[in-house]
Specification:
Helix content is about 25%, strand content about 35%. The chain is built from two helices and four strands, in the order E-H-E-E-H-E. A hairpin with a 6-residue loop joins strand 2 and strand 3.
């Protein structure tokens, strides 16, 4: 299935809440991957959606998770596949 919008949601997680946040993220439709990272953010989530409204609904669900402190969403304008 082709999606109109691909986005990366960068998430800051409260210390000690990583496992529960990941478990809740897995339940959200349109979340395609969850990466725990080092650096400014703790988790990066890849989201595929059909509209900006649908993306908004996904980010609202992410915000509602206990342990999510802050998010920043980056929408992909163009993706170059190298393989």
């Amino acid at each position: 299935m082709s999606f109109l919008i691909i986005a990366y949601v960068m998430i800051n997680v409260t210390v000690g809440k990583m496992r529960s946040v990941i478990n809740e993220l897995k339940k959200i439709e349109h979340v395609k991957s969850i990466s725990v990272v080092a650096g400014e953010y703790d988790v990066i989530v890849r989201v595929h959606s059909n509209s900006l409204e649908e993306l908004f609904e996904v980010t609202e669900k992410i915000h509602a998770i206990d342990g999510v402190e802050r998010t920043t969403t980056h929408i992909v304008e163009k993706e170059v596949i190298t393989e």
